[in-house]
Design brief:
Number of strands of chain B: 0
Strand content of chain A: under 5%
Strand content of chain B: under 5%
CATH architecture of the largest domain in chain A: Orthogonal Bundle
Helix content of chain B: over 70%
Order of helices and strands of chain A: HHHHHHHH
Oligomer: heterodimer
Number of strands of chain A: 0
Shape of chain B: elongated
Distance between the termini of chain B: 96 Å
CATH class of the largest domain in chain A: Mainly Alpha
Chain lengths: 190, 113
């Protein structure tokens, strides 16, 4: 059985028009892109579309990609930017269809499944709480806490100074703590 | 670190442990490759046509500009006007335009019955 080709060889072949090589890169990195996109948008058609668009943008930019950043970081950056665009699109659509008297905070909620306290699963609770964060905090929380990227890599993906990442993370965690307090903290005392 | 931090970190660790890794639906790579194939075949075709035609078009424009400049050496117009083949507008041109409009029935004061 042959060893899988390293990224740089697959990249060189893909640049030369080898679709099998590009496909191998998609298969290798789809979980990386899925982690960002599904973390930001939740599961569904939107996430699949943004995932596809990420690789299409990458394909279009193959010749410009010089390998200054690791391929995973580069793809995470594209996926994050497209996810943030998708969130803005959702918000615009909801603005269009919602009446003016509805609260603006509702507009920031992504359409993920609502949390049912009766179901009581900690996992659902955390997913629900992350979905309530605004996109600025959510992007940092997804990369740092769910994807377990370092502060520096998160900063590189988001093109922010590491200090900003840390302050946003701190605010995001405070917000998560506030959202989870009625459920998680109570449950842990039982 | 406070107890709240511990609780949140425990909840997040629990979340990571119990949640299956994020993944797209089956056939994701096929969908990407299909979109790449359809999206780029047309773009590549247009690019090839453009690359072939653009130098020819640029050469034709340059040739016409040179011919225009050479053919209007004594006109006293600016080089740009001569290169673009723009005629100098004189008072006679303005009157001839009036006459032409009158011939076409435009801009005259007569009302047709």
């Amino acid at each position: 059985m042959s060893l899988p080709l390293p990224d740089n060889e697959l990249l060189a072949a893909a640049r030369g028009g080898d679709q099998a090589a590009f496909r191998a890169l998609v298969e290798r990195y789809q979980s990386v892109v899925a982690g960002v996109v599904i973390g930001m948008l939740g599961r569904g058609d939107d996430a699949d579309d943004v995932g596809q668009e990420t690789f299409i943008r990458f394909y279009a930019a193959l010749r410009q990609f010089r390998g200054d950043a690791a391929l995973g970081t580069y793809l995470r950056r594209i996926a994050m930017n497209l996810s943030l665009n998708a969130i803005k699109r959702r918000q615009r659509l909801r603005w269009r269809f919602l009446s003016r008297d509805e609260s603006s905070s509702e507009l920031l909620e992504p359409p993920v499944e609502a949390y049912d306290p009766e179901a009581g699963e900690r996992r659902d609770m955390v997913r629900w709480a992350i979905a309530q964060l605004n996109e600025t905090h959510r992007s940092v929380v997804v990369l740092r806490l769910l994807e377990e990227r370092s502060t520096n890599e998160t900063a590189e993906v988001l093109q922010l100074p590491p200090g900003t990442v840390m302050s946003r993370l701190s605010r995001g965690m405070a917000e998560l703590r506030r959202l989870l307090a009625p459920y998680a903290m109570g449950a842990s005392d039982e | 670190m406070s107890n709240d931090d511990l609780d949140l970190e425990a909840a997040l660790a629990d979340y990571r442990r119990t949640t299956s890794p994020a993944a797209f639906d089956l056939g994701f790579a096929d969908r990407v490759i299909a979109r790449v194939a359809t999206g780029f075949s047309m773009a590549d075709g247009l690019q090839r046509v453009f690359v072939r035609l653009a130098p020819l078009a640029a050469a034709a424009v340059l040739l016409l500009a040179v011919l225009n400049v050479r053919g209007t050496a004594a006109s006293g117009q600016s080089l740009v006007d001569r290169a673009l083949g723009i005629r100098a507008v004189t008072l006679a041109d303005a009157y001839s335009l009036d006459n032409a409009l009158a011939d076409w029935g435009v801009g005259t004061t007569e009302v047709s019955k």
